[in-house]
Amino acid sequence: MLRRPVERTDDNGAGQRNEALIRAVALGHDWRRKMERGIYPSIRALADAKGFSDSYAWKIIRLAYLAPDIIEAILDGRQPAHLILHKVNAAQLSGDWRSQRRALGFSEKS
Questions:
Q1: Cβ(12)–Cβ(23) under 8 Å?
Q2: Which terminus of the chain is more exposed, N or C, with fewer CB under 10 A?
Q3: Cβ pair 100, 70 in contact under 8 A
Q4: Cα–Cα distance for residue pair 58/20, rounded to 1 Å
Q5: Which segment of 2-6, 75-79, 95-99 scores lowest on mean pLDDT?
Q6: How far is CA 84 from CA 27, 91, 96, in A?
């Protein structure tokens, strides 16, 4: 069984890789691919197979739909200092990348 990414909240600086957030983004991409391939026909089937709640599985999968520049910043450790997995999961995110940037504290792209 996979374990939930555990995140330290005492790191305060941008420029530091948040390994829990990175693992969650990677997991979201993996789970999305498995659903697209039909390995799991639903969120519930995936959640049951992985031992998580439906809501947790959905929160992880939606990380795969973040704007590419947000994902790149997370992988490079350039995310805003306040951005931790809990805050990403709590944010009201749409499919609109501009709205995602605003909600997560990234600067606007032109």
A1: no
A2: C
A3: yes
A4: 17
A5: 2-6
A6: 16, 11, 20
Separation of alpha carbons 35 and 89, rounded Å: 20
Query: What pLDDT score does 3 carry?
Result: 52
Task: Give the whole-number percent of the chain exceeding pLDDT 90.
Answer: 79
The tokens describing 49, both together, are 């197979």
Cβ–Cβ < 8 Å for 101, 107: yes
DSSP string, 56-80: HHHHHHGGGGS-HHHHHHHHHT-S-
pLDDT at 2 over 90: no
Q: Distance between CA 73 and CA 67 in Å, rounded?
A: 10
Res. 7: pLDDT tops 90: no
**Distance between CA atoms of 87 and 83, rounded to whole angstroms?**
6
